Amino acid sequence: MTQSSKENSLYSYRWLIYIIVLLLYCTGSFLRLSPGVIKNELEAAFALGAVGFSTLNSMYFYTYMILQIPVGIFVDTIGAKKMVIIGGTITALGSALFGLAGSVPVLMISRLLIGMGTSAFFIAILKLQTQWYLANEYGFMTGLTSFVGNMGGALAQGPLAFIIALASWRITFLSVSGLILLLVIASAFFVVNRPEDKGFAPLHAPADAAPASQIKLGSILLETFKNKKIWPLVLYMFFAPACSFTIIAWGPAFFTETYDVTMLTAGNIMFIQTTVFALSCVAIGKISDLIKRRKLPSVLFAAVNVVIWCVFAFAGNRVSLPVAATLIIISGAANTGYILSLAIAKEISNPEFSGISTSVVNTAPFLGGAVAPIIFGTIIERYTPMLSGIALFQKAFLLLALFYICAFVSSFFLVETGARNIYYD
Q1: CB 305: neighbour CB atoms within 10 A?
Q2: Cβ pair 200, 6 in contact under 8 A
Q3: Which residues contact 31 (CB under 8 A, 6 or more apart)?
């Protein structure tokens, strides 16, 4: 086989690996964001209130968040392939259990299992990218990953509302479980950790550092935590995604209860919002790679969301349905500013331990996703006896405005890497 043929085979095979794991990540995003559209069905079947629904939604984020650092360690040691297979199997079990749940405790456990299983997918994809793609492709590939993954979240909006209008939500989750098992089998046969494991030449020169398996994990974590450049990323990744997850969870209820639209209409608005978010992930990744800037887009996008949620919090009673839908959609596009934080995390860290560094940063959004919706739901439940409609939601939107202000402030402390690894600079 000629050198050109080998390169073509490598480029083809890496896309096969990427698509398999990406589809798993897509199903994980679907499962993560699905409760918002089936809120009424869950409340009817399990007698859940606002806090109960928010707690159920947050169950996913607890295990996902707790496991991010362990997943990063295991991805760097036992490899991405094994983590994808283990995570996929647990996710399939959780989705099946969710579809079969007959009580609130079982429902909660199923969400915990889904969070546990899906926690492996994104870090595994990022690790595979560092082995199968060049450094100048990271921004675009991270954006593409976020796009496809978030299209899974988009399918959990309007399309899911349409599906459950025709069939049971339980059948939907059982079907997703079967799809995940098929992808796990494909992963076992086709996913490979590194090009050289498949007989290809490595894309990157070997690093001077010893492999992660030969270094004490405590030393790796300590080095990561002592990196002062990583902590502004953690703060940014806590506040901005916390709002994003809260909006997805409560967006359908906001539109149905404030503007008296059907759940299908509300789901379609959120579908557009999530789709725009996904497209923006690709765009911001590509633009960031081209202009070789990570910090500037992060600052600008945070500023846009500060303005939008201050409008909702302080002037929401004067916002019509078309304007509200437009602002929610623009907010979705601007939410992608935090996606670049994952690229920055790789570029300020030792390339050998990229799984650990990105997992530390990726813990923050799921901590925010666990905390913010519960606070939001508590505010809604607290003021429900006295307020309704937009006046009720304005109280809770103050939380989102505050969180976006914090994200905006933290964005000024992000390090500009120039879209390259600066660890050895």
Answers
A1: 29
A2: yes
A3: 60, 91, 94, 95, 98, 114, 118, 156, 173, 176
With cut-offs at 50, 70 and 90, classify the pLDDT of residue 4: low
pLDDT single digits (tens) 392-422 = 999 999 999 999 999 999 999 999 988 888 8
To which H or E segment does residue 289 belong? helix 263-291
DSSP conformation class of 419: S
Residue reference for tokens 């996902």? 64
- 319 CB-near residues (< 8 Å, 6+ apart): 311, 312, 327, 390
pLDDT digits (tens, 9 = 90+) for 179-216: 999 999 999 999 998 888 777 777 765 554 445 445 56
Structure tokens at 247: 């909006």
> Distance (Å, rounded) from C-alpha 228 to C-alpha 231?
6
Domains of the chain: 12-196+217-411 (1.20.1250.20)
Letter for the amino acid at 287? I
